[in-house]
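Archive transcription. Copying these from loose printouts into the bound notebook so they stop getting lost. Printout 1 of 2:
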Amino acid sequence: MRILILGGTSLTGPFVVRRLHGLGHEVTVFHRGEHETELPAGVLHRHGDLSHPPRDLCGGAPDVVVHMWALTEAHATAFLDCFSGAAGRAVVVSSCDVYRAYGRLQRLESGPPDPVPLSEDAPLRESRYPYRKMDRPPLEGLDQYDKILVERALLAQSALPVTILRFPAVYGPHDMHRLRQWLKPMEKGAAELRMQDDFARWRWTHGFCEDVAQAVVLAATDERARGRIYNVGEPATPTWAERIAAFGRAAGWKGRILPVPAAELPEDRQMAHDFAHHLAIDSRRIRAELGYAEVVSPAEAMARTIAWERG
């Protein structure tokens, strides 16, 4: 197949590109040029504005176009303007932050916790633009970010069949050093790590970058994905204390996690989220329908992540 990938050069994208190319597909990558990565010979590579991609990027109409960087409603609208009627179908990366549990976690809205794990049919956020009030948003220029608006634009039309993949917290080499703050005191020999107690009990589904990439590959190459929404992530979600303890053991740490009330932590380490709202998502649909399974063992994923955090 002729497959066009918008984005695809940072965390998960290179694995998607290499696997699709290895499967014999004709792959073109179009990205902003901010991150360069080594791609296989034969993969076409072009730079430009992701918010306004030109139509003819891969020498003809793509069978599938994969958008890995649709952050705003405007991105989704421009994408549809470009590829509706000009591509066979699309795969678009979304996020588990679309769920109502995320809005309540961030105290953007209120209400009781939703049952977990969250399926693809779980209630979505009523609030919009979740990063506008954050002191330190994870990416620059996120005032207009909202994956709900991206999904809504995609689902409101029928000219371009779309598969939506709701990603978990993606970790591994080239992530935003999600786990470095915990590794540093472990490496210094700390006997215990104090952790805010409600945070220690909180569950947030993660996925190793290469494993998550496999979900994109399956969605791009399997016609059964047409028109479907899938959660992507680990099969079972540990508490944060359990996750960091396992991370520490893999790094050779002999200490323990000590949950404590927020008031016993320094002010800059106290978190005001409502951790009664878990972001544990249910990935059984993509496993059942597309045969999704992790391609990297948990031990290897942890070892590669630790090496990245130490680097």
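Printout 2 of 2:
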Amino acid sequence: MSGCGTDKTGGCGGGCGCGSAAPSAETAIDAGRRAFLGGAGAVAVTTLAPTVTLIAYGTSEAQAAGADPAKRWGLLIDISKCADGCTACVTACKTENGWEGGADNQQDSQWIRKVSLRDPKSGVTRSAPVMCQHCALPPCVDVCPTGASMKRADGIVLVDKHRCIGCRYCMMACPYKARSFVHHELEDQKPWAPRGVGTVESCTLCVHRVDRGEAPACVSACATAGGAMLFGDLNDPGSEIAKAVASVPTKQIRGDLGVDPGVRYRNL
């Protein structure tokens, strides 16, 4: 019996003369993605504490709350002012966002961490905080199969926990080792920083504070410590951070990768 060899995507496989268009490459990719999500979604588990809701950062509501496409939020960190033993920024981030280790202390996420840098020629050592660099072209977003890793219109890179299936592709793609996977049960979560077992997390640049006109917790804490961190709109020529970047030499970690980090360092 003759007939059209229509495939499972609804397009003709060709050769039957029916004139039906074969599925496009985009259609095939979408079908493959759906199949991947169908299998992966079955094992993805998210467990939250009572009263904590997974906020879908990047939705129309979040964008309306403060994601202005004319802005590019960023940090400038002067490591000459960052003392080796100072962990004020790390402590402030933990307190603000509640990412302490689990009950058994088997895992301690690192939304921000202090690293030691040594000049091999001079032997001089410096200490610097490293977190999500909020890239203009974030590799984590490129590899995410569900769209959970996303960049807001104002440059802040986030993870939508509603969509994260815990595949950890973003962790492998991040050049800065800035993302962590939640293995353990969670307690005392913050409503503005939703977390869940089986999901990936990283620095949010304290987006909840930024959207209400405040600086990230690490920056506020550093202001009373070493004063090494400066936060602001890199796109605003009149902002303090934009003036500093234009007037003093700054560097981006692995600037050669072309991802254009929103975090810059001075005296690196």
